[in-house]
Design brief:
The protein has 145 residues and is an alpha/beta fold. It has helices spanning 7-14, 19-35, 42-55, 62-72, 82-95, 99-110, 140-143, and strands spanning 3-5, 38-39, 115-117, 126-127, 130-133. The protein has a single domain, classed as 5'-nuclease (Rossmann fold, 3-Layer(aba) Sandwich), CATH 3.40.50.1010.
Length: 145
């Protein structure tokens, strides 16, 4: 089962200040790499790059962050094209999400994901067939797949 991953999971995977969240994020990412079921968008990758190079303290070296993004290209990132944007506007209107979150949901739908790993959206919420899972409250083995 493909799982769409929001920015915060990748960021916590690199943030040593939050030891418990880092461990859980790394568990999720390990599973997704092994099973080849991780999905992402270019929006998420751009947010990740900006966060780990400019907001994380200590920040990640620019070259390492770029390599992370290059590696995640194996996950077939979804581009925010006109179809994803139209879908995002529908999600935004129907569920009242911000445009940025709606774009993530729309990209998850375009990726044929039924689950979205995100700490920032409401756990258990269903947005057009995509259920939000808090990756720090649910272990990889508990979701099934």
């Amino acid at each position: 089962m493909p799982l769409f991953v929001d920015t915060n999971v990748f960021v916590y995977g690199r943030d040593g200040r939050e030891v418990d969240k880092q461990a859980r994020a790394l568990d999720w990412l390990d599973r997704l790499w092994r099973e080849r079921t991780g999905r992402v968008s270019f929006q998420v990758l751009s947010e990740y790059y900006g966060t780990v190079t400019r907001k994380l303290d200590p920040g990640l070296d620019v070259e390492q962050a770029r390599q992370d993004v290059r590696d995640l290209a194996a996950w077939r990132p979804v581009a925010v094209d006109s179809a994803v944007l139209d879908g995002a506007w529908q999600v935004e209107s129907r569920y009242g999400l911000s445009l940025w979150d709606a774009q993530i949901v729309s990209a998850a739908i375009a990726s044929r994901c039924t689950h979205l790993l995100s700490e920032d959206m409401t756990a258990g919420a269903d947005y057009g067939g995509v259920e939000v899972v808090d990756p720090f409250a649910v272990a990889p083995g508990d979701l099934g797949g």
